[in-house]
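Bumping with the actual sequence this time:
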Amino acid sequence: MTSIAIIGLGWLGEPLALHLLEKGYPVKGSTTTQEKLSRLQSIGIDTGLLKFNPHPEGSGFSALFDTDVLFVNIPPRSKSVPEGFYVEQIKFVKALAVQSKVKKIIFVSSTSVYPDLNQKVDESFPLTIENSGNPGILRAEQILLSEKSYDLTIIRFGGLLGVDRIPGRYFSGKANVTGDSPVNYIHQDDAVRLAAWIIENNLWNETFNGVAPLHPLRRDLYQKNSMELGFAPPMSYAADGESMWKEISGDKILETGFKFQIPDPLDFWYQA
């Protein structure tokens, strides 16, 4: 059975680990704090302590890289660290992976790499550092793609939501909120299933957008969240047409046979 190591057992990585363990895969992973390490081990996930600061710090983490598939899930912390920090983190991840002769890597990227051009975009969009909506994450992709000795698949997830992440709550009571642009979201359940699908179906050396197929307007979603979950809606919305937007196509992953359990963000479930 294919062994899998998940760098970053957080909001996405932990449920993915549990999902893969249920399917019988040998899974291990990393977290950045001792507190989480103890909790993850207590629920049966083989966990090591590893933090990229940006160089690797921790204990016994070299064993993590003795794996068939490395799932790299390190969210950028752009507000609290210097520019370029994330790119340096990814360079160290790559160096450890190459040193350990890892054969397959999945990299969690983001649809924020696409620019807001008031149009629909898919994976074929010609991205450059100059036109990217998130040059740091695009640069990280490029580092992993260059001079590689492994198979690499990139998942550009849209907004990872559901469970305790409720989009309407972030804008509750706020004024001048953008309401007329389409959302590019995916529920945690489908994000986990999509990552597992790539491993199970050997979909390597590809880039996939991980985005639910339906794109309701932000306004409709925020209003539905507030009505169903009992918090205040936005106080006011910006005039239509004021904000730039993009609609991310998730058709490519659908063409592989993957089916979303929750294709419409208006139907996402939450634990409010």
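The tokens above came from a reply further down the thread. The chain has one domain: 4-164+186-215+249-267.
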